[in-house]
Every structure is written in structure tokens, then in C-alpha cells.
Amino acid sequence: MRLVFLGPPGSGKSTQAQAGAARWQIPSISTGNLLRDAIAAQSDLGQQAQTHVEAGELVPDQLIVGLMRESFGSPVTQNGWIIDGFPRNLAQTQALDTLLQIMGQPYGQVVYFETPEDLLVERMLKRGRQDDSEDLIRQRLQIYNEQTTPLIDFYRRRQCLIEIDGSRPASEITDAIAAALQPLASV
């Protein structure tokens, strides 16, 4: 089971990635967690990323790809994974395709969480993170819409996109994902 979870910040993809990882006994690879860990460790990539995060900007592709490369080098990813929060633009999609081809780990499906913007803002403000002021949240959502929305059509054309209503309760979303993937798991 190799999956990409795609959706705006606050859409619940991290919660669902954790639920899916537990269900299918595979790791969840979260770019958000990778970034926070790298920043906390003050690694070279973390220090570079911190400047962008504090300004409310998305972290540049080269830094994210570097973190992903390190993750896919781990033996725990050999039997499957769920990627949460990556790719977020077409350049990252191409980088991910190349990276996975090199590592012999192609992904099968992309699960997209459609969620209204006002609900996203509300959810992110409730998290209480230091980098989650309403202005920064709306700025990140605008950048997301500009950069990531084109991926929806890209994956639709590849016929690997599963669209899920991200405004429902978490347990209903988990069930919807499992139901959508069930026919694929038995192939």
C-alpha cells in the first residue's frame, strides 16, 4: 500500500495518514513532522526551513525533497507508506516520481481531501501552534491554492485520484478512505 494524501493545511490528512498507517501497518511520512523535527534538531535543513516557516512561507522544494530522500532511505518504507503533505506542486510531483522510480517504490493512489476554507482556518486556529495566526493561515492557504490545486487535475488525468469530503467527522473520513481503497487492496 503506497499512498499520497493531498489536501490543504487543516484538511485532516495527517489524522487520516496516522489512521491508515495503523490500519495497514505502514509508516506515515509527514512533511510537516519532518520539518518540525529538522527544525527542533537544528539540522542544516532544519535551520534553512525555519526561516521560511517563521515568515509563513512554504519551504522550498529542494529542502522538502532532501527530507523525503532521507525518509525513503529507511528500511521501514520498503513494504509501503503514506505520504502526508507532499507533493505540493508539479515540480515536487516530478521530483517524487523520479525519487520513487530510483528507489523502486512507485505509488498507486492519491487521496485528496476536499475541505471548505473557513473550516480549514477554524481547525488550524484550534491547534494553537505558534505559526498558526489567522493571517498566516490564510496566506498559506492562498499559496496552497496557487501551487497545489493544479495537482488535482494532474492526478485525475493519471486516473489515480480518490476524492474524499474532508469536512466530515474523522471516523467517517477514515471509513470512506477504507471503502475507496478496498477494491484496490484485493487486486
Please explain how this structure is put together:
With 187 residues, the protein is an alpha/beta fold. The chain is 58% helix and 12% strand. It has helices at 13-24, 31-40, 44-54, 61-72, 90-103, 117-127, 134-147, 149-157, 170-185, and strands spanning 2-6, 28-30, 81-84, 109-114, 161-165. Strands 2-3-1-4-5 form a 5-stranded parallel sheet, sandwiched between helices. The longest helix has 16 residues, at 170-185. It is globular. The mean pLDDT is 90.
Low-confidence stretches: none
- Helix and strand content put the structural class at alpha/beta
Helix count equals 9
Compute the separation of the termini in Å. Answer: 11 Å
| Main sheet makeup | 5 strands, parallel
* N-to-C order of helices and strands: EHEHHHEHEHHHEH
Radius of gyration: 16 Å
Put the structure in a nutshell:
The chain contains nine helices and five strands; from the N terminus they run βαβαααβαβαααβα. The chain is of the alpha/beta class and about 190 residues long.
Fold topology:
Elements: E1 2-6, H1 13-24, E2 28-30, H2 31-40, H3 44-54, H4 61-72, E3 81-84, H5 90-103, E4 109-114, H6 117-127, H7 134-147, H8 149-157, E5 161-165, H9 170-185
Helix pairs in contact: 1-9, 2-3, 4-5, 6-7
Supply the key terms.
alpha/beta; 9 helices; 5 strands
